[in-house]
Every structure is written in structure tokens, then in C-alpha cells.
Design goal:
By secondary structure, this protein is of the alpha+beta class. It has a single domain, classed as Roll (Pnp Oxidase, Chain A), CATH 2.30.110.10. About 20% of the residues lie in helices and about 45% in strands. A hairpin with a 2-residue loop joins β10 and β11. The protein is globular and about 55 Å long. The termini are close together. The mean pLDDT is about 95. Keywords: Oxidoreductase. Pfam families: PNPOx_N (PF01243). InterPro entries: F420H2_bilvrd_red/Heme_oxyg, Pyridox_Oxase_N, Split_barrel_FMN-bd. This is Pyridoxamine 5'-phosphate oxidase family protein.
Length: about 160
């Protein structure tokens, strides 16, 4: 269980810390996430993608030749964000950590089952040779164990930090 801190400087006076269980559930059920990686020239690269929460970490996929993968080869630092565009309701979450390439077929099979359970039959992957395979090609799977997570509540406004 991570340590949680409510930052009163950026929170309404009546705000209380959002429990880690609520934040973890938000990460698990979100449909779309935004991944930020760092380009070789140190500029950010941001892209939407789908992901799953498995074994206390976020997992996402990318092709080996995609910009995300090329960025990760040089710098594994990432931020994954999810939330809502509403100003006065919901919970926005930012996960910061390092992306690690998964190659273990047993873990990848569990991940593939999680993708299909969450996103449906269209996201069924065959696992072999340390990667996901599907009609569109081969996808590498990356795991991001949180180093720090921020949760931004909106009713009331709150800024929460969870360190691992």
C-alpha cells in the first residue's frame, strides 16, 4: 500500500485524501490512457492508447518500430494519465515510472486475458516468442510499476500524491 499525502495547498479546505483503493480502481477501469515518453532530443511525445492494470502495474503495448518504442529504448521514463475532461467532477490520475519490456510468456498470457476481458474479442492476442501477435502484427508489452501517482479530485478539488 503506497503512502498517501493530500496537498492542502492545492486542495479545497474540506477535501480529504482519496483512498488508494479508489485510485487503483480508476486505473483499472479507465478505457483510454495518455502515454508520455521522451524523444531523443528531450521533447515529449504523447499518444492515446489502451492499457490494463495487472499485478500492481500498468501494461501497454506498442510495435517495436513505433515512436513510443524508439523513445523507450533511449529513456524508459514515462507518465501514463487518465481521467475526464469535466472540470467539476471525476478523478484524474497520473502514473509516473519506468517502462520495462515484458518477455515472459506466462505473464504475457495473463496480460492477454486481461486485455480481452477489459476490451473485448477485438483485442484478443496470441502470445508467443515474448510478444503479442494479432492480425495487425506484433506488439511488445511494457509494464510500468508506479514510482509516484498523483490523483486530482474535482468535487471537492484535491491533489493527492502516492509514493511507492
Amino acid at each position: 500500500m503506497p503512502d498517501a499525502v493530500l496537498d492542502q495547498r492545492y486542495s479545497d479546505p474540506e477535501a480529504v485524501a482519496v483512498s488508494w483503493e479508489v485510485v487503483r480502481e480508476r486505473l483499472a477501469r479507465a478505457g483510454v490512457y495518455w502515454l508520455t515518453t521522451v524523444r531523443p532530443e528531450a521533447r515529449p511525445h504523447v499518444t492515446p492508447l489502451i492499457a490494463v492494470w495487472l499485478d500492481d502495474a500498468m501494461l501497454f503495448t506498442t510495435g517495436a518500430q513505433e515512436r513510443k518504442a524508439r523513445n523507450l529504448a533511449g529513456n524508459p521514463a514515462v507518465a501514463l494519465t487518465t481521467g475526464t475532461d469535466a472540470l467539476d467532477r471525476g478523478l484524474d490520475v497520473v502514473v509516473e515510472g519506468e517502462a520495462q519490456l515484458l518477455r515472459d510468456d506466462a505473464t504475457l498470457r495473463r496480460a492477454a486475458a486481461a486485455w480481452e476481458a477489459k476490451y473485448g474479442e477485438a483485442w484478443r492476442f496470441e502470445v508467443r516468442d515474448g510478444a503479442f501477435h494479432h492480425a495487425g502484427g506484433v506488439a511488445d508489452v511494457y509494464r510500468v510499476a508506479p514510482r509516484v501517482v498523483f490523483a486530482f479530485g474535482k468535487d471537492p478539488y484535491s491533489q493527492n500524491r502516492y509514493t511507492f
